[in-house]
From TrEMBL:
ZnF locations on chain (CR-type): 163-242
Residue ranges annotated for the CR-type domain, each copy included: 163-242
Subcellular location, record wording: Cytoplasm
Domain notes: The J domain is necessary and sufficient to stimulate DnaK ATPase activity. Zinc center 1 plays an important role in the autonomous, DnaK-independent chaperone activity of DnaJ. Zinc center 2 is essential for interaction with DnaK and for DnaJ activity.
Record organism: Nocardioides alpinus
Protein name in UniProt: Chaperone protein DnaJ
SUPFAM superfamilies: Chaperone J-domain, DnaJ/Hsp40 cysteine-rich domain, HSP40/DnaJ peptide-binding domain
Source lineage: Bacteria, Bacillati, Actinomycetota, Actinomycetes, Propionibacteriales
Amino acid sequence: MADTDGFRNDWATKDFYQVLGVAKDASAAEIKTAYRKLARANHPDSNPGDDKLHEKFKAVAEAYDVVGDEAKRAKYDEFRSLQARGGFGPGMGGGGGGGFGGGGFNIDDLLRERGGAGGLGDMFGDIFGGGGGQRPRTQQARPRRGADVESTATIGFTDALDGVTVSLRLTSDTACATCQGTGGKPGTRPHICPECEGAGFIVAGTGGAFSINETCPACGGRQLVYDEACPTCHGSGRGTSARSIQARIPAGVKDGARIRLKGKGAPGEQGGPAGDLFVTVKVTPHRVFGRKGDNLTLDVPVSFDEAALGGEVKIPTLGGAPVTLKLPAGTPNGRTFRVRGKGATRRDGSKGDLLATIEVQVPATLDQTAREALEAYRAATAGKPLRAGLFDG
């Protein structure tokens, strides 16, 4: 961990704006554009074997990490402003006794007044990774959001229409109970991860000119590593938890719908928020009714004489009293009648319709009286062939 003099000599002399090729008053969009352009041009994947460009890529990433962050940039600008006014001249280190004109002025005392009790390290340590000579920087990982959890709920046809509360048994990834998600053996000392330098991620190439951030494989994104790994999770920081929750399935849900329950997923780490629970709904089919969007469907068997002569046919509704369909004479097979307001519940609380489709039934066997009646019907309609049009042309 660097002292104040190392901090001054190593970081105070770096002009991050110059590295990115932008003005000090450049906008955030201009800084981002410049970084992307330089990152593409100097990325290791695009320049294999060119150590000079590799170092340039690292410098560009380092500069953008500071001036690309609004809070860090403000502190960095104040630091540079103090330096420009002579506030960080020779002998001005936090542990030294030098000062303006050798008068014993201590720069860490000045920054302690401006930045709080911790002095230089507290005021600028989050940018530069160093600390004042008085005390080390606090090593604490940032809060992390919990993982999302997937589950499936199978409900009945009627429950899907009316809505239902179901009990779900969830097994999810969570922080290790022994180390509380740190990955270290309790009582051992944490260190900033040397692989990602405490960022929690590393820059990885995609095989082209662009790069992406990936979770650091050394610390698992926790930013810190420990002298000894946790004996329970072997350094992963992860465990499993089983729990039961009550989930409300809304009325009118369709088969295959995916419902999001915010904050019902895996718990977060270091005070971070919980993830979300996504429930995929499976609806069992009904013996009589079907569904088409917000409408229910029903196949209604009718006899030949009912379709030909017309009549009234009583049909069921789901969860309500039966209704009567009035069939006009000559109703064809496959005609659909609409019964308004007897379908599924919509999101606005209104209901869809019931679509009743006529299916004319052909008897498999006939008694003597029925046969004689049908033969008489055949004779009466013999002069009206039905299939004559099939041979036209």
